[in-house]
Structures are given as structure tokens and as C-alpha cells.
Amino acid sequence: MSTYGDISPRTAAYAVKNLLERAHPAMITELFGVPTTLPTNSTKSVKWRRYNALPKALTPLTEGVAPTGSALTATDVTLTLQQYGAYVPITDVILDTHEDPVLHELTTGVIPQQAAETIETIRLGALKSASNVFYAGGVASRATVASAFDLNTQRKIVRALARQNAKKVTKVVKASVNIATEPVAASFICIIHPDLVPTIRSLTGFVPTEKYAGITPWDMEIGKVEDVRYLVTTLNTPYADAGATSSTMISTTGTNADVYPMLFFGADAFGIVALKGKFAADVLVNNPKAVKGDELAQYGSVGWKTMQGAAILNDAWFAVCEVAAPKI
To answer: Which of 214-223, 263-272, 277-286 tops mean pLDDT?
Structure first.
């Protein structure tokens, strides 16, 4: 049996294209992660290589004397991928001779959403584990967080990124099935949960997307504050009841504050296995067929699977700020 089940390569390619086109708009990380692709029949590991900056050449040259050369060094980040996937049982016959409504609905609707949310949750989980962590209110740990995010904290984070020579994002990966980039206005990026939107909108200097001049907003962007553009997703979930006791902050049980991770980063801060290209994902269709246990050919399935993962490529260019969200 082929990797796509009971449909031809042509129909399988059509189904995968539909899945990818519908999945991409829901995936913030697909825009900003350094993409790599995983060819078929390859290993489960991917590697990103970053060449380190050379030291400053501050010693004046001596006439007729060649200086000592600078050694080129690199930092490798290796990630072992995991396979993910799911399927939907069906009872309708999937025909390869025409566009079946069931196949079309699954590959353009619920399956792309499931795939996108699964992959994005996995990626965000990897990014939330960053070692460069700030806490709202200047406290020392997640367990003592009970304060909202403020402009002063944003400025501390931006300063910390800038001091490590983190570059602002000036290009993103296009939301298409191919890996290509497009230029954007220079800025740092922050991914937040919707519960933090009122806090961001209340910051001094907040500019909503509808007032952008010469900047095209992204689908899930709400606006910018100084050097940072904010994007929102429900998949960047909080840590329930992980903060300090608070009566003014959102709490799952009503006692301790939920703690929300805000993900700040510059260009090339993290890498992903791109959900793009020929081997990005498999769509598998099994027509109902007469076999033992299904003698009347009543059951089939439509599913997907992919190899995925994400990794922080430079901890100094990525920061997590853990905050509480005020009740409204």
C-alpha cells in the first residue's frame, strides 16, 4: 500500500495542498521560524548550524607582517523529530474519479485545523521552555507571579535582546505551500494569549493594526507598542493556578493566578520543520472495502501524519515573560 492509501498520487497531492493551504493561516510559528524540510527516507534528526561572530580586529596592522587569522566557529542545534497524526472514520465511499464532498470537506476543513493546532501546540510548548525568562512585577519565580505586564517590562526585554545583538524581524516566510520569504517592517515579535489583549491595548503608545501606516498586519496581529508587534493565539496556553494568591487576576480555581507566557523573539531565534513541500505531510485515505470484520465494506478513514519539532536556536535572542492577566 502506498503512503496515501486508496487514492492516486495526483489526488493525494491535491489533498495535501488543500491541507497545507488551510493549516498555514493558523500557525504563527510558520511565519517566523527558521525553516528546514525533512526529505523522505531521511533520519529523524535535523540540524541547524549558526556561524558565530568573529572577534573585533582592534590590533593595528604591522607593515609587512601578516596578522593571525581568525578561526571560524559554529554552533549546532540538533533536534530529534517525533511523528504525529490522527484520522477520522468514514462510512461514505471515497471515489478517486471525482472530487468527493467528504474528502473535500475533511482536507479543507477539520483535518487542516486539527493538524495546524497540533503542530502549533507542539512548537509553542518547545518555545515556552526557553531559558531566558522574565517575570512580571520583578519577582523571582513563576510561583510568585501576580502582576500584569507593563511597558517598563517590555523595555527591559527589548533592551536585553538588543544587548545580545538580536536582530529585528525584517522578513517572514510566506503563508504558502512553498518556502519563500517576503519583507516586513523591522520589529521584535511577541506571541500572547487572548486573555492578555486588554493589557497590551492599555499600554502607553499602543498602535492598533487598523492605524498602521505602510505596514500590512498579519491575520492574528492586534497591534504594536514601540519596537514590538503582538500576535494572538489561544494555543499559547497559560499555566493554571501556577502563580501567587490573587483576587484581581484570572485564576482557574479562583485562588492562585494563572501564569501566561509571553514569547518575545528576534530574527532567526528558533527553528522549525516547515509544514511545506512534498514531504510536509501525508494525507491517507482508506476506502471502505470488504475484509474480515467489515464484510459489507461499510467503514473507511481519512487521516494525516507528519514528522515535526521545534528548537530555540539562540537563547539570547528569545525571551519568555511570565505574567498574570487582570480580571475585567
So the answer is: 263-272
